[in-house]
């Protein structure tokens, strides 16, 4: 059995990790570290787990676990690892932005399986991709693979309220979010850096801009992204490129059905739909921001790192009604 630990156990992504790992056939959840909830049962925070587990939060860390997931706020993972040292055999999967940019200062591999599966399998440290970055990058990677991003890419995407985490702010209160819609961080979202890095990895001459407008939706979870750019060939050619690129992807699928969030919420899937309008290719991409955009993808990476079936523990079904 894989002995696993979670650092930062009270947030949304940690809750999803706990739900997956307590049911994973090859994992024992060894500890869930929380500075705010030590000694409390995890179901006091993640209340749907009443009757499922009696694990308690702890302020003690087992440094000998096989894998540790860092579910900390952005900027805090680096600080935590500087202050706490795990065994040389412990694999680390970080869900923050701290290690997503390649650097000589760290050995973290960017954990997008559709892009870096071989590297993930041999990695000890994984930087789990951001939620917007996952949805958008998967929408346009096949174009980059074939050197076809020659013009700017325009992206509009909306995420649910859980994308902002559990900390309260003016724009996360129910009275503000309900029956509301707004854009934020237009053209400046932090995930643009990792999107650009991934595109450049496959298309070395990539210099086009990705213009991204993120939006806040008045629903709980899910990301609906649309991306379009100039594409000179026809729709059949585009679909062929995408289906070939994702032929061996465990969770990313190309479909000609209309897309909506109920198809993917509570799953680790990414669904893509291609449409052609004049000389523009429009790609719609949908994911669950807490699963394929965070915790589900983290477990997918763990499975690859330990030589398990990529889908193990992730047979999650959408709640359609």
Automatic annotation (TrEMBL):
PROSITE patterns: ARGC. The keyword Oxidoreductase applies. Pathway: Amino-acid biosynthesis; L-arginine biosynthesis; N(2)-acetyl-L-ornithine from L-glutamate: step 3/4. One of its GO terms (molecular function) is NAD binding. Its main location: cytoplasm. Residues 3-123 form the Semialdehyde dehydrogenase NAD-binding domain. It catalyses: N-acetyl-L-glutamate 5-semialdehyde + phosphate + NADP(+) = N-acetyl-L-glutamyl 5-phosphate + NADPH + H(+). It comes from the Bacteria. Gene3D superfamilies: Dihydrodipicolinate Reductase, domain 2, NAD(P)-binding Rossmann-like Domain. GO terms for biological process: L-arginine biosynthetic process. The active site is at residue 131. SUPFAM superfamilies: Glyceraldehyde-3-phosphate dehydrogenase-like, C-terminal domain, NAD(P)-binding Rossmann-fold domains. The keyword Oxidoreductase applies. Keywords: Amino-acid biosynthesis, Arginine biosynthesis, Cytoplasm, NADP, Oxidoreductase. InterPro entries: AGPR, AGPR_AS, AGPR_dimerisation_dom, AGPR_type-1, NAD(P)-bd_dom_sf, Semialdehyde_DH_NAD-bd. Its EC number is 1.2.1.38. GO terms for cellular component: cytoplasm. It is found in: Cytoplasm. Catalyzes the NADPH-dependent reduction of N-acetyl-5-glutamyl phosphate to yield N-acetyl-L-glutamate 5-semialdehyde. Belongs to the NAGSA dehydrogenase family. Type 1 subfamily. PANTHER family: N-ACETYL-GAMMA-GLUTAMYL-PHOSPHATE REDUCTASE, CHLOROPLASTIC-RELATED, N-ACETYL-GAMMA-GLUTAMYL-PHOSPHATE REDUCTASE, CHLOROPLASTIC-RELATED-RELATED. This is N-acetyl-gamma-glutamyl-phosphate reductase.
């Amino acid at each position: 059995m894989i002995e696993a630990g979670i650092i930062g156990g009270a947030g949304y992504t940690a809750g999803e990790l706990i739900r997956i790992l307590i049911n994973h056939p090859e994992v024992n959840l060894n500890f869930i570290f929380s500075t705010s909830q030590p000694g409390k049962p995890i179901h006091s925070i993640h209340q749907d787990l009443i009757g499922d587990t009696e694990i308690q939060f702890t302020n003690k860390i087992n440094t000998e676990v096989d894998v540790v997931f860092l579910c900390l706020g952005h900027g805090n993972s680096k600080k935590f690892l500087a202050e706490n040292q795990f065994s040389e055999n412990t694999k680390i999967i970080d869900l923050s932005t701290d290690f997503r940019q390649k650097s000589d200062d760290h050995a973290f591999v960017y954990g997008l399986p559709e892009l870096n599966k071989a590297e993930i399998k041999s990695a000890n440290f994984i930087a789990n991709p951001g939620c917007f970055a996952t949805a958008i990058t998967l929408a346009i990677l096949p174009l980059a693979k074939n050197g076809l991003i020659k013009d700017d890419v325009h992206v509009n995407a909306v995420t649910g309220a859980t994308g902002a985490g559990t900390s309260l702010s003016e724009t996360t209160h129910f009275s503000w979010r309900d029956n509301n819609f707004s854009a934020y961080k237009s053209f400046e979202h932090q995930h643009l850096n990792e999107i650009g890095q991934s595109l450049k990895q496959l298309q070395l001459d990539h210099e086009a801009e990705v213009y991204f407008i993120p939006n806040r939706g008045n629903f709980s979870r899910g990301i609906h992204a649309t991306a379009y750019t100039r594409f000179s060939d026809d729709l059949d050619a585009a679909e062929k490129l995408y289906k070939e690129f994702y032929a061996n992807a465990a969770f990313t699928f190309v479909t000609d059905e209309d897309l909506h969030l109920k198809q993917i919420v509570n799953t680790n899937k990414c669904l893509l739909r291609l449409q052609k309008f004049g000389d523009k290719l429009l790609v719609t991409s949908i994911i669950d921001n807490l699963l394929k955009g965070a915790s589900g993808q983290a477990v997918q990476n763990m499975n690859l790192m330990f030589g398990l079936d990529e889908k193990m523990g992730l047979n999650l079904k959408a709640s359609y009604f």
